[in-house]
């Protein structure tokens, strides 16, 4: 595996299919599964490792985000990554530059709780796609709204590649794998699977026939308060339709249950598709 820090060192071989897995490092099985899938489907796999400053808000965890290039490089190599692209912030942002705003799907939920977050995500993903020139870029459904934003950007801007969305990889107790799980204390780690448990229970309850809007509202309210009773500060626990990300109370469209909840200093997000 080649470790590359400069954009000019990335090669573009004609006739080779390239899969890109954009990441911020702190690799876990979720990241590694994306890389394995890319390896199965493409001739050459590039994983990018860049803790993107522009997607962190003030007071967020940019400074303490897990960084360990040596460990990540060895894990990436084990799953067959060909090129690990780990540029510096100066390489990616040599000056105050253009910013991409994706309307509608970036407005609510993560968009409103983390102002500017999706502009940072869309801009860095667009730049990475242009730097690497992949045929397929792989993203995890763990970050559902991010997937919707990236997909929308690629469609709106006619970018010539396929976005492949991959299922969330979980710990045995259901907790979605995340680099941020490393922040959890032992006690918090024991509580953390409640987010997924509540999402799953809620999904089951919502899928009964002829559910009224009031019943759906009650089910969502119960799940949210049950997390709060466990000590979470819940940013949102919602049923949304995927097309617009607006909150809904019936399942006539493609929907998802989404949640963001804070446990101590850790913010957990998760979702289930319906
Ligand atoms: P990150 O390093 O957190 O920016 O994540 C890099 C990529 O890995 C993104 O596409 C994430 O959605 C994806 N990812 C993170 N956690 C998981 C997980 N538990 N399962 C599947 N994909 C994940």
Distance between the termini: 39 Å
Contiguous runs where pLDDT drops below 50 for at least 5 residues: none
The CATH architecture of the largest domain:
3-Layer(aba) Sandwich
Average pLDDT taken over every residue: 97
Count all strands and give the number. Answer: 9
**Coarse morphology:** globular
State the CATH class of the largest domain.
Alpha Beta
Listed once per kind, the bound small molecules are: adenosine monophosphate
CATH topology of the largest domain, by name, is Rossmann fold
Strand order of the largest sheet: 1-4-3-2-5-6
The proportion of residues in beta strands is 15-25%
**What's the helix count?**
9
The CATH superfamily title of the largest domain: HUPs
N-to-C order of helices and strands: EEHEHEHHHEHEHHHEEE
User: Helical content, roughly?
Assistant: 25-40%
SS-based class: alpha/beta
| Overall domain count | 2
Query: How big is the Rg?
Result: 19 Å
Describe the main β-sheet briefly: 6 strands, parallel
């Amino acid at each position: 595996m080649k470790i590359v820090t400069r954009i000019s060192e990335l090669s573009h071989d004609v006739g080779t299919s390239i899969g890109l897995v954009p990441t911020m490092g702190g690799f876990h099985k979720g990241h590694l599964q994306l890389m394995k899938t890319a390896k199965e489907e493409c001739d050459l796999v590039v994983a990018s490792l860049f803790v993107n400053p522009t997607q962190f808000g003030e007071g967020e965890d940019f400074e303490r985000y897990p960084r360990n290039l040596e460990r990540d490089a060895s894990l990436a190599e084990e799953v067959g990554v060909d090129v690990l692209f780990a540029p510096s912030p100066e390489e990616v942002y040599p000056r105050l530059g253009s910013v991409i705003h994706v309307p509608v799907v970036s407005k609510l939920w993560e968009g409103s709780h983390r102002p500017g977050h999706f502009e940072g995500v869309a801009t860095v993903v667009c730049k990475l796609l242009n730097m690497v020139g992949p045929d397929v870029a792989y993203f995890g459904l763990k970050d559902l709204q991010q997937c919707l934003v990236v997909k929308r950007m690629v469609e709106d801007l006619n970018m010539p590649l396929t976005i492949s969305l991959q299922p969330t990889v979980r710990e045995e107790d259901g907790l979605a794998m995340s680099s941020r799980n490393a922040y959890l204390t032992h006690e918090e780690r024991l509580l953390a699977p409640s987010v997924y448990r509540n999402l799953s229970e809620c999904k089951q309850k919502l899928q009964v026939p002829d559910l009224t809007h009031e019943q759906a509202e009650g089910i969502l309210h119960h799940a949210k308060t049950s997390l709060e009773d466990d000590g979470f500060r819940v940013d949102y626990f919602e049923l949304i339709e995927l097309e617009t990300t607006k909150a809904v109370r019936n399942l006539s469209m493609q929907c998802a249950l989404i949640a963001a909840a804070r446990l101590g200093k850790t913010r957990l997000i998760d979702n289930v598709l319906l």
